[in-house]
Write a sequence for this structure.
C-alpha cells in the first residue's frame, strides 16, 4: 500500500479524472440519453423485453440494469421486463464449453430474443467478441440495440444501424468508462420512472 501522502494523491487524481470524464460524457450523451430511455420504456410498454450483456464489470452493469427495471430504482411502480444474459451459470458454461465463449450471449439471444425486444450491449473497448456477436444476433432476430461504449466505440460502433442508439463514455480508461456507464444506467432508470409517474 502506498504511504499516506502518495495514497491521498492517487485518490485525488482518480476523483479528478472521474469528474473530467463525467463532464465530457454528459456533453456527449445529453441528447441521446433521453431517446434511449424512451426506447426502453416503449419496448416494455408494448409487451417486449430488455436483454442485457457485457463482460467483467460490464456483466455487473448488465445485472444491475436488469434488477432496476424488474424491481425498482427510486420509485415503486409496475415491473418492467428485463433479463440479464450474464447470470445463468449452467447456460453460460454449456455454451462456452460446447460452442465457445464468443457465443455465450448470441445463443441466448437466439433462444430468448423476439422482434421488438431491445438489447443493452455494454463494452468499454467495443471489441469483446461475445458482445459483437450478440449485436449481430440481435439484428438477425429483429431487436434494436442500445450500446454503452467508450474510447472510439470499437467494432460495436461500426455494427450499429440507424435504429440503434450508442451512448459513448468520453474516456479511454476502462475504469472511467465503467463509472460513466453506471451513471448512464441510473439516468435511464430515473427518466423511465419519471415518465411512468407522469403517466399514472
Ligand atoms: O472491471 C474491469 C476493469 O475495471 C474488468 O473486469 C473488465 O470489465 C474486463 O476486463 C472485461 O473483460 C473488459 O471487457 P470490455 O469492457 O472490453 O468489453
Ligand atoms: Zn472495474
Amino acid at each position: 500500500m502506498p504511504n499516506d501522502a502518495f495514497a491521498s494523491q492517487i485518490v485525488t487524481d482518480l476523483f479528478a479524472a472521474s469528474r473530467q470524464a463525467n463532464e465530457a460524457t454528459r456533453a456527449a450523451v445529453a441528447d441521446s440519453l433521453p431517446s434511449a430511455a424512451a426506447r426502453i420504456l416503449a419496448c416494455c410498454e408494448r409487451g417486449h423485453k430488455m436483454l442485457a450483456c457485457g463482460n467483467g464489470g460490464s456483466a455487473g452493469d448488465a445485472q444491475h440494469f436488469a434488477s432496476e427495471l424488474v424491481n425498482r430504482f427510486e420509485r415503486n411502480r409496475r415491473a418492467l421486463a428485463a433479463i440479464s444474459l450474464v447470470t445463468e451459470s449452467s447456460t453460460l458454461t454449456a455454451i462456452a464449453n460446447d460452442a465457445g465463449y464468443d457465443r455465450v450471449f448470441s445463443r441466448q439471444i437466439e433462444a430468448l430474443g423476439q422482434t421488438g425486444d431491445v438489447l443493452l450491449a455494454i463494452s468499454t473497448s467495443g471489441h469483446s467478441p461475445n458482445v459483437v456477436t450478440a449485436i449481430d444476433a440481435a439484428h438477425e432476430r429483429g431487436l434494436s440495440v442500445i450500446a454503452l461504449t467508450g474510447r472510439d466505440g470499437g467494432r460495436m460502433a461500426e455494427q450499429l444501424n440507424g435504429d440503434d442508439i450508442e451512448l459513448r463514455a468520453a474516456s479511454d480508461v476502462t475504469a472511467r468508462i465503467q463509472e460513466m456507464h453506471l451513471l448512464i444506467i441510473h439516468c435511464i432508470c430515473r427518466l423511465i420512472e419519471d415518465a411512468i409517474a407522469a403517466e399514472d
Notes: The chain is about 60% helix and 10% strand. The mean pLDDT is 97. The pocket of D-altro-hept-2-ulose 7-phosphate (ligand 1) is lined by residues 55-58, 123-125, 128, 131, 174-175, 178 (CB under 6 Å). Helices lie at 4-29, 32-45, 57-70, 89-98, 104-112, 129-140, 154-159, 174-199.
